[in-house]
Amino acid sequence: MNMFKSTTLFLATLGVAGAVALSIDTAKVSADATTTLQVSTFTPSINNVYSGNAVNESKIGGTWIVKQGIKGIIRNRAGAAKIITNTMGGKAGRIFNSYYYDVTAGLKPLLEWSEVPAQSAFDATFRNLINAGVSRSDATNVAEAIKIAINLFV
């Protein structure tokens, strides 16, 4: 009996991905081992996959998190410098403090994008630090720390 329930749950999970789900009606299994199987299709929709607050849940995604992290870095220089120093060392923290305005000049335009992947924050930071004359290795360390800080600010 438990095998039927777990199989049904497994196949229902596959149904969310668009496959055909197989549901077994255990009440129709008789004592002489004849089984009736009912095959039905499962069409995922917002009502049967998510709860009632699906609209609120969908707002919290990758872009929202990245934008909030970028805002946190722009608004909280000392906090960002602390995270960068803790993750990549004192030299990266000093470079971030020295080139803070160059870093934020690269991050501010990202807030206007409709989709902001975390890698774009890395790229913008790296590009602006290279243009400001920072070495590639130091720019990479600071940009990677910025990418980490974005996830920690949320």
Structural overview:
The chain is mainly α. It folds into 2 domains: 2-57, no CATH class; 62-153, no CATH class. It has 9 helices and 2 strands; from the N terminus they run H-E-E-H-H-H-H-H-H-H-H. Helix 4 crosses helix 9 (136-153), helix 7 packs across helix 8 and helix 8 (118-131) packs antiparallel against helix 9. It is globular, with a radius of gyration of 25 Å. The chain starts with a helix and ends with a helix. 22% of the residues are buried.
Continuous helix count: 9
In total, the number of strands is 2
Largest sheet: 2 strands, antiparallel
| SSE string, helices as H and strands as E | HEEHHHHHHHH
Strand ordering within the main sheet: 1-2
Estimated share of beta-strand residues:
5-15%
Shape field: globular
What is the radius of gyration?
25 Å
**Sheet/helix structural class:** mainly alpha
Q: What number is the mean pLDDT?
A: 74
Q: How many domains would you count in the coordinates?
A: 2
The oligomeric status of these chains comes to single chain
Helix content: 55-70%
Distance between the termini: 45 Å
Q: Which regions have little confidence, pLDDT < 50, spanning 5+ residues?
A: 1-26, 52-60
Keywords: Signal
Signal peptide: 1-21
